[in-house]
Amino acid sequence: MTTVRIALPNKGRLNQSAIGLMNKIGFPMPDSSNRTLLAEFGKGRYEVLLARAQDIPGFVEMGAADLGITGLDLVMETGRDVENLMQLDFGRCRLVVAVPEDSPLENPEQVEEGSTVATCFPNLTRTYFESLGKTVRIAEVTGATEVAPQVGLADVITDLTETGSTLKLNHLKEIGVILESRAVLIANSKSMTEKRARVEELTSALESVMNASRKRYLLANIPKSSLPNLSTLLPGISGPTIMNIMGRDDLVAIHAVTNEDEINGVITMLKSTGATGILVMPIERMVL
Prior knowledge:
Layout: E1 4-9, H1 15-24, E2 38-41, E3 46-51, H2 56-62, E4 67-71, H3 72-78, E5 83-87, E6 93-100, E7 116-119, H4 122-131, E8 137-140, E9 156-161, H5 165-169, E10 172-181, E11 183-187, H6 189-194, H7 196-213, E12 215-223, H8 230-233, E13 241-245, E14 248-259, H9 263-272, E15 276-282
């Protein structure tokens, strides 16, 4: 039997979202208090390996895992030879250049040659400043990068941020962006050849869940006289489905899929056409 192993972050900012995604495709992952590192699903067809997010690119490159979910920032930092199969809908953040808020620097080009930069991402940071024609000294740290200027370790840092609130809390300001990152699904190149069918089965399941997360299923009763405007209001996937209502010649039932971020506006427009009995429901899977 061909078994496909997928590595997930065992903790950190990507852990819960990655486990939630697995749960939605039918892999009931143990809770975070469970120390199990390897779980089996689908009667042995799949295995899930819990590992440090920064180790996952290496695990996938070396074949310890066929697939992995980790941050794009870690894939780029490690430089591992893996295939980037899919961008996922969580873990969005930026790797930024930051300096103390009272610094006169306003952009990375103003960083002086030979400056010390504290970072957890030495390779990305070095490459970025080299692209600007600058050689900097890298002070590699493993965490709490934002305190480096306060303790005199460096005047410049590069660090991950989602909203910038941690930078502001530590009296830092962002002056440049090195990388826009998010969670990604990566694959071992050999596995993509030898286990392609099973890998595609899993990636298709993940994609269907992500497609569904951005959509809502809408049902409503609408006057037949409003049907000419319906295709504009509810384009759906291939257009809304129209169904007769027993005993009613003036109304029809409509079924449609619409974007989650547009649903409030769609409801308002439907009500203006005389629609009643409007229902909005989540979608578990959607295969396009």
